[in-house]
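Please produce the structure of this protein holding adenosine-5'-triphosphate.
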Amino acid sequence: MLEILLIDDEPSIRLSVGDALGAAGHRVTLASDGREGLRLATHRAFDVVVTDVRLPGADGLTIFREVKRLGSTTDVILITAFGAVDDAVTAMKEGAHDYLTKPFDVAELVLRIERIADRRRIQRELDQARAELAARDAGALVVGQSPPMVRLLDRIETMAQSDAAVLITGESGTGKELVARALHEHGPRRGRPFVAVNCAAFPETLLEAELFGHERGAFTGAVRKRDGRFRAADGGTLFLDEIAEIPLPAQAKLLRVLQDGAFEPLGTNTSVRVDVRLVCATHRNLKEHIATARFREDLYYRVNVLDLHIPALRERRGDLPLLAQHFLRRYVKGDGPVPPIAPRAWAALSQYPFPGNVRELEHALEHAFVLSRGAEIDIQHLPADIAGSAGELAALAPPRKPLCDRCRWRSRNSSASTCCARSSSPKASAPRPPRCSASLARTCGRS
Ligand SMILES: Nc1ncnc2c1ncn2[C@@H]1O[C@H](COP(=O)(O)OP(=O)(O)OP(=O)(O)O)[C@@H](O)[C@H]1O
Ligand SMILES: [Mg+2]
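Below is the modeled complex.
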């Protein structure tokens, strides 16, 4: 079904074409003059505009050019009087889709519109497939080469084949959601929905409605019926992030879905059955939550049939180079080179503890990439926390050898901070530095 705007000042054409397109299943809007047609064509998103060329108010060519100027994807078909095809040919050269000469066969117009419908459907399917592929690649790409990550990747591959519930644990930013996506994408449910819910993002009263859906009027503010995330994930995977934050009443309901595969949406007595693989994640210690009665023990064993723990980034520093490459490559446009990281910036990154784990590294590199404008990343391009900790390191480093007189003078009078490391000599107009004493000259490497 296409949204079509038909602009013609002849009532008989509006009637016959409008009826034929309507009968072919399209929704047709009619305009009887150029001005009204132009207003509609530029204010609403039509798939196709069929317009007469000669019109009172604004001609068909103007309407076509305005539609194109707005950058819309609307296809325009022009209808022109016999012997006056010049305008239509001009429009075709400028990108109009097609033209017909009066008198024309309405069935022929319907056929041409059908071809547009087919082309648009194929385009939509291609776009969808491309978007899914992109999401899949992004979602499934868990980068890591350190021994703990190699083991983890192996476990993901195995667990992806099962339907059993998985509990992913790990500090914030270690990649729990990414791993949940990888479990989905590497298993038989790929191609079906992957639905992620951050349980901490909903107030207690709304989480149940979000998960299980509700009838219209089930609670104050429920103005429309909603299906809920369990139904949205039917056939696929439901990822419940921050599962420790689920309030106890919703925990009871969740337990029932895991036991029976069924639940009742809020405001109904009807049981809904779904086929959903559950993957949960938390950065908290659920055993502690059980001990303090904040988490149901029976639910814990249901969600934790299989477990995956993602180590903190500081426990797998061997992944830093690969992750850095991975993120920097993402920021580089096209096939351009990935900017190198200067040794002192690399030293700062390597010794920083990354309490925010991979997410913090990702943000740090984006920060550095922006500040370095895509060129070599140096210490001053890193976020202050990371560059600052390198400063602390420097403070812990063994005391430097004393500077000779000449170099002390230089470090006071220029930005040079290393002894005799610079080849540039002071400007001619500047006072001459004192000479080194023989013994100190050796300590700073000058002969
Ligand atoms: N191994 C990895 N390879 C590539 N990217 C990763 C990896 N681990 C994490 N990331 C990236 O780091 C960011 C944080 O990951 P994610 O959101 O999965 O972490 P999380 O553990 O769910 O965090 P939180 O506990 O805060 O919800 C994301 O952009 C993700 O793509
Ligand atoms: Mg998360």
